[in-house]
Amino acid sequence: MDLIQSPWFSYKKDHLYCGEVPIRDIIKSTGTPVYIYNKQFFQNSFNEFKEAFKGLDNSIFFSVKSNFNISVIKTFLDLGCGADVNSQGEMYRALQAGAKPDKLILSGVGKTKDEIKLGLEHDILLFKAESEEEILLINEIAGTMNKIARVGIRVNPNVDAKTHPYISTGLMENKFGLNTDEAVEIFNMGGKLKNIEFTAIDMHIGSQIISIDPFSEAIDRLSEVYFRLKGNGINLKHFDIGGGIGVPYKGEKIFSLKEFASALIPKLKKLDCKILFEPGRFLTANGGVLVSQVLFTKMNYDKNFVITDAAMNDLLRPSIYNAYHHIQPVDLYSGRDDIYADIVGPVCESGDFFAKDRVISKMNREEYLAVLSCGSYGMVMSSNYNGRRRPPEVLVDYNNFNIIRSRETYEHLIWDEKSNN
Ligand code: LLP
Questions:
Q1: Active-site residue flag, 348
Q2: How many A from CA of 206 to the centre of ligand 1?
Q3: What b/e sequence results for 190-205 when a residue is b if at least 16 CB atoms lie within 10 Å of its CB, and e otherwise?
Q4: 0.90 exceeded by pTM
Q5: Are 82 and 60 in contact (CB under 8 A)?
Q6: pLDDT for 371-413, tens place per residue?
Q7: pLDDT tens digit sequence for 110-162
């Protein structure tokens, strides 16, 4: 089988390490399943992003939905990054991690009154609005609070991001944003909305996008809107291009950030405003693994199954997007044959799998497996399905590790339930 290694996760003497910490040391203290992140990966990818766009007036906002652990958010804040949040819960997490409101963006196609109020109370940098009704509501609430809300309009450019349909967000059939004409109409109405200042135009066309073209095309469409507005005397401060940069899951080659920057910078420099980025996956995906223990192996008819103690409730991506995550043993043994196997969890659904017909070295009970590229959209999408406790999270910092979230207890699972009424 193929083994994927990186400076952040690599084998030393046939044992997998995260940075300088052997995985065995971590699981001795946490058990399995467990999410393990490498802090240096997070720092490195943020610095790579910053470096690639250093010639451009820009700010980076970590998309908290990709990994909302407050230690992870803080890692990015400490580097000068802002935070893009999609709900009150994510805003709460970002504030707990120490985010400054002037570095907070509130996104989301369906914001509640409470979310809008909270954003106004904190005087956040930007509300990204996605409908006329939402804009009217923000104006009304800001009025009652005697505040001016800084608002951007998310434009749906009708560009195909060529990614999984569930994470493609910039096509006219998607629920996101407003079409260009309607957006212009609402921007033009700005003078009548006394408690709103329109400061930004925004897009986010999808996630795990593996070619630069859709970004280029969407930026062209939004630039047209930007210049139409400028012609009407509306000078926006911010042009937000969202997130969406694809990352390798199989060790494959995807455009580099340098290529991305050199394709886009000339277009973005024509705009007379600051560029905002909201990367999530690029900053976190390949900085995390999910480690699980093999409970049993079996052959059913002619199919091999490896049954692990992690399940779809811990990592949902394979079940709902058929997403590929590379899986490899934590310990390597010479002379082991490779087999084809389905790697599955204990949840009672056939959709509970991490891989199907995957080539993997033959595994025995009680050995450990690492599911790679789990730093994004892993823990944040976990659930308690089948009464399972969500796993702990560990952050490795060179040769130290910290448990940044403990495994849930059974008491957590029922804390607010009553056994009678
Ligand atoms: N900004 C906005 C407004 C977004 O909706 C998203 C992601 C991002 C930024 C960050 O996108 P990224 O750089 O991570 O691609 N659960 C799915 C991904 C959903 C992405 C949702 N929006 C998955 O596991 O693939």
A1: yes
A2: 7
A3: beebebbebbbbbbbb
A4: yes
A5: yes
A6: 999 999 999 999 999 999 999 999 999 999 999 999 999 999 9
A7: 999 999 999 999 999 999 999 999 999 999 999 999 999 999 999 999 999 88
Q: Yes or no: say if 193 and 259 are a contact pair by the CB < 8 Å rule.
A: no
Q: Report the atom number in ligand 1 closest to the C-alpha of 285.
A: 14
- 82 residue type, one letter: G
Torsion of the alpha carbons at 376, 382, 388 and 389, rounded to the nearest 10:
70
Tokens 């969890």 -> residue: 345
Tell me which H or E stretch contains 140.
Answer: helix 132-144
Query: What's the length of the chain?
Result: 421
**How many angstroms is it from 245 CA to the middle of ligand 1?**
9
Q: Which atom of ligand 1 is nearest to the CA of 164?
A: 25
> What CATH code would you report for 107-279?
3.20.20.10
* Residues near ligand 1 (Cβ within 6 A): 63, 65-66, 84, 107, 167, 204, 207-208, 242-245, 278-282, 317, 321, 376-377
Map out the domains of the chain as residue ranges: 9-38+285-414, 107-279
Q: What is the dihedral of CA 133, 139, 144, 145, to 10 degrees?
A: 130
Q: How many CA atoms does the CB half-sphere of 73 hold within 13 Å?
A: 27
CA pair distance 152, 201, nearest whole angstrom: 5
Whether 111 contacts 105, CB under 8 Å: no
Domain 9-38+285-414: which CATH class? mainly beta
